[in-house]
Amino acid sequence: MRTVPRGLLHLGVAAILLWLLWPERFTVNMPSAIGGWFRSAPTTDSIRNRIRLPDGFSIALYASGLTDARMLRFTEAGDLLVSLPRSGRIILLERDRDEDGRPDGRRDLLTGLNRPHGLDLHEGWLYIAETSALGRVRFDQKAGNVSGGFERLARLPVGGQHWTRSVRLGPDGWVYVSVGSSCNACREEDPRRAALLRFRPDGTARQIYATGLRNTVGFDWHPLQNELYGADNGRDFLGDDFPPCELNRIEHGKFYGWPYANGDKAPDPGLGAGNQDEVRESVPPVHNFGAHTAPLGLSFLHGNGLPPGYQGAALAALHGSWNRTEKAGYEVVSLHFDATGKITERKFATGFERDEEVIGRPVDVAEGPDGAIYISDDYGGNIYRVSYRKTLKP
Questions:
Q1: Cα Rg of the chain (Å, integer)
Q2: Position 265 pLDDT exceeds 60
Q3: Does some domain include residue 45?
Q4: How high is the pLDDT of residue 12?
C-alpha cells in the first residue's frame, strides 16, 4: 500500500485548518490524482481529441511512465535529460535516430539525489539544482555519460512550502539559481528565500541577484536583447481572481514585491500596511498571467522552422490551479514581444483540462535540436512532442 509523503500530509492538515478558519477565501480544487499516480499513458486518439494547437502544429506522445517528470534539457547530441525529483533521479532519453517518434532508449544518468529539479549544461559539466544544494558532475554530451562524483558547490536553504530549485547558465557566464519562498505570505528570515541567486561556475562568489520573487520556477533570457525574464507564482487565499501570476523582467538588485505587494504594486492585505516604501519601490510585472494558473517552465524559441511570429517568442507552461473554484491553467501559452515591448499572450497547447477533468499538468517546455517543442507533464508522467508543418492555403 502506498504511503502518503509527509509533506503532502502536512499540506492536507494545513488546508483543513485554513478552510475552517477562512472558508470564504480558501478553496481546494485539485486534480483527482496527485502527481499522476495510477494513471496510464493517453492514447493517440485521446491526445488528438483533447489537445488543441495553432494551425500547422501537431502533437504526439514522446515518452511515458516518467512519474513526476519535471525539467528538461537537451544535449548537443540530441538526447533529452529529464529530472525526476520524487525518485531522486536524472534520466537520459536517447535521441530518436530511427525517427519513429519515440526515444531509442532510456536510462538513469544519476540516482540518489535530493529532489533534483533544475538542469543545465556548461563547458563539460551538468549542473543540477537539488532542493538543498547546487551541484555539478562531469558530463560528456556526445557519449551521454557522466564521470567522476557529483560535486555539491553551494548549499541552498531547505524546508518550507516551495522546495523546487531551478538553474540556468546566463549569457554573462554566471550560474543562476531560483529559490522560492518558505511560505505563502510571510517575512523571510533567510534573504536567499524568494530570490534569484547567482554564482560563479565553481559555486563561489554567491550574490543575491534579485528579491521579492515568491516562486520563480522558470526563467530565461530573450535571444535578442539578452534581458532576463522569469515566471512567478502569485500567492494564494485571496480569492479566485487575485493576485495574478507574473512575468517579470528581472534586473540586478531590484525588488519585485513579495510579500508586501501583489501584481502592479497592490498592497498585500496582510503585509502591505506599514510597508508602503517597499510597495512603492517594488517593480511591477511586465505581463500578468491568470490568477493561480501557476506558470512554471519558461523558454524562448530560437528555431527558424517555426511560423512567423514565433521566433523570439517565449513559451510558458501553466501547471494549473488548485486554490480556485474553477480550474484554470493546465496549458501552454506563447508570449509575443513587439517592437515597443508590448507582450501578447496566446493559447498554444490547450485541453489538458476540460470541464474540470485533468489529463495533464505542463511543467517545462524545451525546444529540441529537431525544431520540435517538448512538454513535460508531472501529472501523467508524460513528455509530449509538438512539431510544425507549414500548411498550404487552397
A1: 20
A2: yes
A3: yes
A4: 54
Does residue 331 lie in a domain region?
yes
The pTM of the full predicted model, rounded to 2 decimals, is 0.91
Spatial neighbors of 66 by CB under 8 A, at least 6 apart, are 82, 84, 91, 376, 381, 382, 383
- What range defines the domain where residue 336 resides? 31-63+292-394
Mean local confidence (pLDDT), 151-175: 97
The 10s digit of each residue's pLDDT in 347-361 is 999 999 999 999 999
**Rounded-to-integer distance, Cα 99 and Cα 385, Å:** 13
| pLDDT at residue 23 is higher than 80 | no
Q: How far is CA 274 from CA 142, 268, 361, in A?
A: 56, 11, 38
Q: Give me the residues paired with residue 90 across strands.
A: 83, 110
Provide the domain count of the chain: 1
CB atoms within 10 A of CB 346: 12
Phi-psi region of 44 (alpha: psi -120 to 50; beta: other; left: phi over 0): alpha
Residue 239 carries which side chain, given as an amino acid letter? G
144 is a domain residue: no
pLDDT in tens, 190-207: 999 999 999 999 999 999
> Which of 91-109 are b and which e, b meaning 16 or more Cβ less than 10 Å from the residue's Cβ?
bbbbbbeeeeebbeebeeb
In a domain, 336, yes or no: yes
